[in-house]
Design goal:
The protein is 4% helix and 51% strand. The chain contains 1 helix and 12 strands; from the N terminus they run βββββββββββαβ. The strands form 3 sheets. Strands 11-10-9-8-12 form a 5-stranded antiparallel beta sheet, with no helix packed on it. Strands 2-1-6-7 form a 4-stranded antiparallel beta sheet, with no helix packed on it. Strands 3-4-5 form a 3-stranded antiparallel beta sheet, with no helix packed on it. The termini are far apart. The mean pLDDT is 78.
Length: 144
């Protein structure tokens, strides 16, 4: 069974909180409006910063979470270029993956989504060559 761990930026302390205990609540704030509140280990976090551990580690033995920005550098055996990507949940495929921006020959940028599926050995095999360089909540500029 895979290890469940979550993180998010604490509303009170302004730093990442990590833990296996989480709650996501919808709260009626009046006037028919609902607000979603998230808690990690009892600490209220900024909901949009909530992320789950994807059950893989990077090249420095650090846990990779949803929302992390990772750098991949080519290594022998694969013919990929280096790139920077965001780790995300892919709702339509019900799995984690990464998205990266690539430049097409015509000069337009396209976002490519690559799922981490147990059926796609190539994508799983490159995970140990990722290095976490930040996250989208604190270092979004790394994706530019």
């Amino acid at each position: 069974m895979r290890e469940k761990e979550f993180r998010g930026i604490s509303e009170h302390f302004g730093m990442m909180e990590y833990g296996s205990d989480f709650k996501l609540n919808n709260v009626n704030v009046g006037g028919g409006e609902m607000e979603q509140w998230a808690f990690v280990n009892g600490n209220k976090i900024i909901t949009k910063t909530f992320g789950e551990y994807i059950s893989h580690i990077d090249s420095n033995n650090r846990k990779i979470f949803e929302g992390d920005i990772v750098k991949y550098t080519s290594h022998s055996g694969y013919l990929l270029d280096s790139f920077v990507a965001e780790i995300k949940w892919i709702e339509s495929l019900a799995c984690f993956g990464y998205s990266k921006i690539e430049i097409e020959k015509n000069g337009f940028y396209d976002v490519f989504i690559h799922p981490f599926s147990e059926h796609d050995e190539f994508e799983i095999d490159i995970l140990p060559y990722f290095e976490i360089v930040g996250n989208i909540h604190e270092n979004a500029d790394l994706l530019n």
